[in-house]
């Protein structure tokens, strides 16, 4: 049986907009400008912000398909947790002063949480598996693509066969047809990850290859991975704080280079010689 996915909060508001009463429309426009308000305020506070009545708030949430204001607020909070940037915007979000300090504090907290969950043995085991694999695949979508690209680039200094996906002009199927049981796939599964993420994990396990996952939240759909690494990305700003995601990628890349031994040094020497030959740097 197919289970339908609930329509997102903002989509409900937008769909209902043409048919709303003027006072409800006034509330809807506030919500569309700063939808995160729904998560942090009571119905009375929302009514005061929009200069409408409590009854209007009640009618509005029923119009968009929720049984109560609390149900609508829980839906917004769930979508905030899932990584929807717009839902973290607030009318009270400071626009100037202190932004640097707040970002630094969030970054420090995320780094502490992330490093507190890392283990030397696990990192080195993963690094050694990548070094031993015929090919290492780095896969990431949306924000995860940048980290897959970064780690793949760094590891290519010592690993002879590295593939970063998705590649321009290719389907995943065309690339993954070459996946071998001896390979390692490093999958970056950051919020909000597309459905293809799970498909990549399933294809990896079906091929018998090893799977490492870097995620910033619970991933029960990726429970079959051989390595689970978590980067904390909490924030009060519109964008998720990915400082710790880069830190984990940097750590893994550094350990791969450090543990690659004579073969890694020989490849790095060959790259340097090519730099001189091409006069690129």
From TrEMBL:
Coiled coil: none annotated. It comes from Dinoroseobacter shibae (strain DSM 16493 / NCIMB 14021 / DFL 12). Pfam families: HTH_6 (PF01418), SIS (PF01380). Gene3D superfamilies: Glucose-6-phosphate isomerase like protein, domain 1, Winged helix-like DNA-binding domain superfamily/Winged helix DNA-binding domain. InterPro entries: Homeodomain-like_sf, HTH_RpiR, RpiR-like, SIS_dom, SIS_dom_sf, WH-like_DNA-bd_sf. GO terms for molecular function: carbohydrate derivative binding; DNA binding; DNA-binding transcription factor activity. This is Transcriptional regulator. GO terms for biological process: carbohydrate derivative metabolic process. Residues 7-83 form the HTH rpiR-type domain.
């Amino acid at each position: 049986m197919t289970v339908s996915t609930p329509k997102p909060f903002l989509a409900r508001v937008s769909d209902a907009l043409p048919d709303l009463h003027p006072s409800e429309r006034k509330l809807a426009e506030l919500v569309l400008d700063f939808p995160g308000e729904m998560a942090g305020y009571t119905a009375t506070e929302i009514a005061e912000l929009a200069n409408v009545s409590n009854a209007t708030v009640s009618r509005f949430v029923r119009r968009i398909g929720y049984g109560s204001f609390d149900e609508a607020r829980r839906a917004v909070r769930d979508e905030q947790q899932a990584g929807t940037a717009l839902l973290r915007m607030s009318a009270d979000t400071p626009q100037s002063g202190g932004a640097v300090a707040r970002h630094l504090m969030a970054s420090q907290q995320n780094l502490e949480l992330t490093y507190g969950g890392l283990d030397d043995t696990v990192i080195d085991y993963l690094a050694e598996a990548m070094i031993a694999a015929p090919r290492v695949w780095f896969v990431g979508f949306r924000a995860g693509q940048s980290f897959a690209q970064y780690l793949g680039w760094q590891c290519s200094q010592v690993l002879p066969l590295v593939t970063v996906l998705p590649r321009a002009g290719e389907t995943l199927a065309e690339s993954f047809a070459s996946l071998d049981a001896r390979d390692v796939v490093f999958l970056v599964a950051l919020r909000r990850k597309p459905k293809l993420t799970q498909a990549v994990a399933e294809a990896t396990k079906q091929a018998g290859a090893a799977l490492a996952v870097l995620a910033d939240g619970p991933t029960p759909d990726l429970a079959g991975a051989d390595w689970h690494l978590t980067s904390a990305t909490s924030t009060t700003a519109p964008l998720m704080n990915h400082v710790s995601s880069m830190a984990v990628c940097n750590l893994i890349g550094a350990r791969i280079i450090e543990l690659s031994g004579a073969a890694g040094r020989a490849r790095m020497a060959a790259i340097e010689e090519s730099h001189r030959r091409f006069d690129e740097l």
